[in-house]
Amino acid sequence: MRKTEIEEMMEQTRTEYMKEKFAFFGGMSLLYGLLYTLFFYQSKMGINNILWVLSIIVIGSFLLKKTGIPKKKRTNIYLAGMILLGISSALTTSMFFYVCNTIGILCLYILFMIHQFYDKKVGGSLTYVKGFFVIAGNMFLSTFKPYSHTIAYFSGNTTARKKKWTAGLIGVLLGIGILAVILPFLLNSDAVFSQMVGRLLKYVNIWDGIQIVFSVLFGFHICYTFFFSLCKNSEIRGKEAHRKKGNPVIGITSLTVIGIIYLLYVAIQITYLFLGIEKGLPQGMTYAQYARGGFWELLFVSTVNLFLVIIWSRFFEKHKVLSVLLALISGCTFVMILSAGYRMLLYIQVYHLTFLRLFVMWFLVVLALIMGGVTIKIFREKFPVFLYTTAVVSVCYLLFSFSRPDEIAAKYLVAQEKQLKEEDVYYLLRRPSLDGAEVLTQLDYERYSDRVKMDVFRYFSNISEKNKEMDIRSTNYMRNRTVKAANAFLEEHRDWKNLTEPYLDF
């Protein structure tokens, strides 16, 4: 019985199979390079992010199918996360979220591929971390593979292939030569044709052509080397090596010293911060001053505690006393996180809400949830803390990005200060994101100076001008909404255009 193509492939290494079937793998990589250029060349963030995510999912699925790797269970969650991140990028103008969304999409895609290529039994957290480094290293070592495989494909011994490509190249050159002779005559023979060709040539730019070629090659290179590195990665076998753990006495004694200090600190937090007892505070310090200080220090210590519990529970032999001490450190960390959050809330009451303050509050919630998973790991060794952490960070980040915190901060500021000070208006003008810029169109500017009016008018004029010619790739919900509001504002206040006071450069 004749072997199928996949059965023959399984007798080879996947990297050799990629070289042999270069027409498919190279063609799919080239297709990705073309799509990448089509979506992102000279384009702002918009629905192109969603199209890009869908393209890498589809192309990756075809490549997996060609190599005979079946789709495993529980992989759709990675793909769903990628699509949601792509949608998030099309709903915001924040560069922070755009960069984070892109990083998140790539990380989820790599996790998806690691889950596909690795042995099912090798699923520990170190496997995924190792997978990231192995893939990056293999991509670097495979830098020249796309080009060596291309050369090998076109310089093969197949006579028919040589004849086909040689004939195609001769045909293209012959067509260009004939066109160079007859085109001048065609241009002179018809004025409409000549005008149309002239208009088309205005859009031909050599530098743009070079950039487009390099963009396509970049996409081709990344796609081919990434999948080649995965195929090399799939040849790694075996479970993680068993490591001898350290003496638990070391962990117990070190945590005992730390635990005593932490218990004292927690007692002070409960007494002076949460209960609000002012007696015993340093001389000259009020409760408000005490409560609003120390946030960043607590955030740092809480983060250190997270890694402390992870490392101690992993590298020291299991012991009941050690587990109790680790749980104690975890409990103290929860109190510190709560203390840091309370301090930040008090700080926000006085100095209002900003994106950074919203971000750190979000980070505290994520830190507490991760700490909860690590605490469970102390008593349940088989708890998948890495996958749990990935899920927590992904879900919480998606909720944070879809909430558009820049807009929340702007609305909060306006709600708290019915009559904004000039410095508050300029704070809103200087934000890099357009999320929440619509709030500025709703303010009453009669009480402000002509300088403020002119700067606001110029701010919205820049928004309108820079987004005048947007193509379908850059369609973005928040940008479109802001531009519409900006144009309406400019029409309503067109008399501000004649103001002459100095203005800021935005």
TrEMBL record:
- Key words, A-Z: Membrane, Transmembrane, Transmembrane helix
- List residues traversing the bilayer: 21-41, 47-64, 84-114, 126-144, 165-186, 206-228, 249-275, 295-315, 322-342, 354-376, 383-402
Q: Which Pfam families match?
A: DUF4153 (PF13687)
Q: What is this protein called?
A: DUF4173 domain-containing protein
State the organism named in the record.
Suipraeoptans intestinalis
